[in-house]
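tokens incoming
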């Protein structure tokens, strides 16, 4: 009898598959840790990505009708409460003729970045691709009339850079997604903000757009959600969207903001469970990393994600390199933002810093890519990373006379400076139960000199 039962089940499944309606797999609940690790291996090894916030907000560039906004540039519609009809004027002015996707991808490569995450649609609802679901997109609403995401996807494909899309769940433009009492904006807030048509926005608009992005722009590696905090969007919706996307592209990586994970316990289900493959600390580096999950710190180079013409508060190249090392030493990825202007140019200060980071990675990349977090407590003078049987000591503060004490290590094998292409051996002596390294009097790299210690 058992055999007959098996035959019936097999035949039924085959029929369902043949008519294209195969059952949705609940990846969120069924994927094993090993399967997830295999799916995320490229991302885990990559360590360093480029975040791109670009859209109509680059036109006002932080200033409108003589008023400069104090906050982040891509929020200008909300900051100045610009009505939708008035905000739409920026589309007619958006003609970034200097946009060159090949140059953007070349810059990412020169910086040592391995993946790019670009805003497909930010909170203003404007789409940087040719969407069949709306005319509020770069093809139908602007004089530019070029598919920005397609050009970027082609350039990434040519250069071997993985591409992902940021996508905002919150949408200030779509009538089914706005807070009904405040016509333009969904906000944090309480239940009376909820738009009764939000499920229609989710099912008939957002999900079909996501399918467009996953099936029309090459091998998309990551969907990076945002704007998940609105009361309209629930953790049940998040889990459903997660599985919907994984059933379209099983190897897709999706951040925790597809659900309510970023907000801690806010709005989670009874088990405190949430969907999403990695945590997304923003503008911060967790003091000791985030145990038990993959994570990626996203940060700006100045103080805004979207371009503001008067934000010149740029972090130094040294701080950016130290942030990268600090993040990797704690087990994370670094997603570093650029905000192109309305002509399609990445600001020169961003380009200079990224090229400097790339020069450092040219010499020291083996101590970053594919590395595991430090096995030791953070030393006062810098950080540790490790890969295979090598410990990498990243020295920020060079020791007096070049003598570096490492109490955690005993009898290492070879020890050399990554900046020394001859790999000439560093003198090692035992001291106080650990080892001392006799290094050059002055640091070969004043930002961070890396010493490889074979175990
Ligand atoms: O509101 C957005 C903001 O504009 C920006 O996109 C950042 C980047 O992660 N995310 C949200 C704020 O958390």
């Amino acid at each position: 009898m058992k055999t007959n039962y098996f035959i019936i089940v097999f035949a039924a499944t085959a029929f369902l598959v043949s008519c294209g309606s195969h059952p949705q797999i609940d990846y969120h609940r069924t994927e094993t840790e090993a399967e997830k690790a295999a799916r995320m291996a490229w991302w885990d090894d990559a360590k360093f990505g480029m975040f791109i916030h670009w859209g109509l907000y680059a036109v006002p560039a932080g200033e409108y009708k003589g008023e400069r906004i104090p906050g982040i540039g891509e929020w200008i519609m909300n900051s100045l409460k610009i009505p939708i009809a008035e905000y739409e004027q920026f589309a007619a002015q958006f003609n970034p003729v200097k946009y060159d996707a090949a140059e953007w991808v070349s810059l990412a490569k020169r910086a040592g970045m391995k993946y790019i995450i670009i805003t497909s649609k930010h909170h203003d609802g404007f789409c940087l691709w040719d969407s069949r679901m709306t005319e509020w997109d770069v093809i139908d609403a602007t004089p530019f009339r070029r598919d920005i995401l397609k050009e970027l996807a082609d350039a990434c494909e040519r250069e071997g850079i993985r591409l992902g899309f940021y996508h905002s769940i919150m949408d200030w433009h779509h009538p089914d997604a706005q807070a009904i009492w405040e016509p333009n904006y969904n906000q944090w807030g309480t239940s009376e903000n909820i738009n009764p048509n939000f499920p229609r926005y989710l099912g008939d608009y957002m999900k079909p757009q996501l399918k467009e992005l996953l099936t029309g722009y090459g091998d998309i590696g990551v969907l990076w959600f945002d704007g998940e905090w609105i009361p309209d969007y629930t953790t049940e919706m998040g889990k459903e969207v997660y599985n919907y996307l994984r059933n379209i592209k099983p190897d897709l990586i999706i951040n925790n903001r597809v659900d309510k994970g970023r907000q801690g316990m806010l709005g989670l289900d009874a088990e405190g469970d949430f969907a999403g493959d990695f945590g997304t600390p923003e503008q911060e580096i967790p003091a000791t990393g985030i145990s038990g999950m993959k994570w990626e710190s996203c940060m700006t180079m100045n103080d805004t994600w979207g371009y503001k013409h008067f934000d010149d508060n740029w972090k130094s190249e040294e701080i950016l390199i130290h942030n990268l090392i600090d993040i990797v030493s704690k087990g994370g990825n670094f997603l570093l933002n650029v905000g192109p202007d309305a002509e399609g140019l990445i600001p020169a200060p961003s380009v200079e810093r990224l090229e400097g980071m790339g020069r450092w990675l040219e010499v020291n990349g083996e101590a970053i890519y594919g590395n595991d977090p430090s096995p030791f407590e953070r030393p006062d003078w810098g950080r540790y990373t490790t890969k295979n049987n090598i410990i990498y000591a990243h020295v920020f503060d060079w020791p007096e006379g070049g003598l570096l004490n490492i109490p955690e290590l005993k009898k290492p094998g070879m020890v050399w400076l990554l900046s020394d292409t001859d790999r000439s051996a560093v003198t090692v002596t035992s001291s106080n139960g650990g080892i001392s390294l006799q290094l050059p009097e002055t640091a070969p790299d004043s930002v961070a000199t890396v010493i490889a210690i074979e175990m």
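note: The first strand starts at residue 48 and ends at 52.
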